[in-house]
Amino acid sequence: MLPALLHYNRGWLEGGAVEDERLCWVGFHLVKGIGPARFRRLQETFGSLRAAWEAPPARWREAGLSAELVARLVRLRATVDLPGLVARWEAQGIRVLTWEDEEYPQRLRHIPQSPPVLYIRGALRPEDDWAVAVVGTRKVTPYGRQVALEVAETLARHGVTVVSGLARGVDGLAHKAALEVGGRTIAVLGSGVDRIYPPEHRRLAERILTHGALVSDYPPGTPPEGANFPPRNRIISGLALAVVIVEAGMKSGALVTASFAADQGREVFAVPGSIYAPQSQGTNWLIQQGARPLLRPQEVLEALELSLLPVRREARRVLKVSPSEQQVLKFLGAEPVHVDDLSAQAGLPVQEVLATLALLELKGLVRQVGSMSYVRLGEAGTSYRVEEV
Question: How far is CA 217 from the centre of its chain?
Answer without folding.
Answer: 13
